[in-house]
Amino acid sequence: MKKSTLNFVFMIFATAALAQSGHIMQGVGAVNMSMGGAATGQPLDISGALQWNPAAISTFDDKIIKFDMGLFFSSPQLYSTVPEFDGEGQPTGNFFSGTTKDDRGVSPMPALAMVWGKEGSKHTFGASAFGISGFGVTFPESTTNPINMPQNMGGFGAIESDYILLQIGFTYAYEISDQFSIGVEPTFNYATLELMPNPTANPSQTAGYPSTDKATALGFGAQFGVFYDSGKGFKAGASYKTTQTFGDFEFDNTYLDGSTGTNDFNMDYPAIYSLGLGYSLGTIDLALDYRLVDYENTDGFAETGWTPTASVAGFGWENISIISAGIQYKGIEKLPLRLGYTYSSNPINDEVTFFNIPATAVIKNAFQVGFSYEISDNLALDAVYHHGASGDATSGPLLNPMFIQAYPPYGAIPGSEVSYDMTTDMIMLGIAYTFKK
């Protein structure tokens, strides 16, 4: 019964959460998304504060509950080119190229947050359930794109992935003074991962790589933050989200010939360092955040390359920088308007592009426009529209462990190329209720 309840909660609050910055959600909720995800030094709503700086919830002096639901559309495309060989294994000088479009469809993206504050109290409490991370692709089998050719014809066949991370946090903030607050948030995580084919498993000489059932893992971590409000418009904040340490995903694999096997794969969530500035003057609120995401010291992402048994050791991602910026205009009564922008560097370098086909959700530039409508002193409705693009395609050679001796370190196939790009769109609505006395 407990397991069924947990699965239901997970489905409701983390279904297909797709990422824009590496595999990390750039923001949480309609208000925070409309500010480009910036909230570390400018907490305009409780969801953004709970996600990016636990100390910042000290600015809220009421009991507030907030729920958001978005519809997320993504359109990854996968390209590949391979050289053609004659019957004696010699290159003909011709090349075979193709494109496959993702047919994943629409994904829901919810967020739930609550804060308990009281005017005059130095203590503020919060709780949240956010889908903070994910990636997923659905590239169908194809005879016109070499990488999606059936496995018995040298390709990978259909390529599908589905990774989702639900994080539940319990937050406490303490006001050291009228201007300075500190905060802490223990975090508990539940993740699922499904791969088809599963490159972390040992391939069979006769049946290639297997497909998997969906595997789950539990993790834990914490977030710490500080927040400063000058009382004269200028604000600043900093936070550190620790590595979210997970147990292994335990995969049950099924090969094309019907044989079965198991393997384990560990994938943690990276540590994130955030710095934020805010400034409020009259009808204008400005926010700017910088984040460093430490993939290079995270299990599952730090490792890369082939194992001795030709399975894939990990994604091989580099650290990334994220810049989030937003502006809010409150000159229209009960209708604040917001614009946001998010920039993210690409964690995937050219030589490991091939290993990252299941995780193509990398958005370089994202633009947001949003607003709120304050129905009453207690109730507000929020909305945001997001559009993101990966910019230049991520590209590199196809890799084969049989070619390592001639083309180290990963066995790049001469004349081959694999690349992917994507755009994302999202519409999100939110509702916030403040319990006034």
From TrEMBL:
Signal sequence bounds: 1-19
Protein topology in the membrane: Multi-pass membrane protein
Keywords: Cell outer membrane, Membrane, Signal, Transmembrane, Transmembrane beta strand
Subcellular localization(s) per the UniProt record: Cell outer membrane
Pfam families: Toluene_X
Predominant location category: membrane
InterPro entries: OMPP1/FadL/TodX
Family annotation (SUPFAM superfamilies): Porins
Family according to the record: Belongs to the OmpP1/FadL family.
Entry protein name: Outer membrane protein transport protein
Source organism of this protein record: Maribacter polysiphoniae
Lineage: Bacteria, Pseudomonadati, Bacteroidota, Flavobacteriia, Flavobacteriales
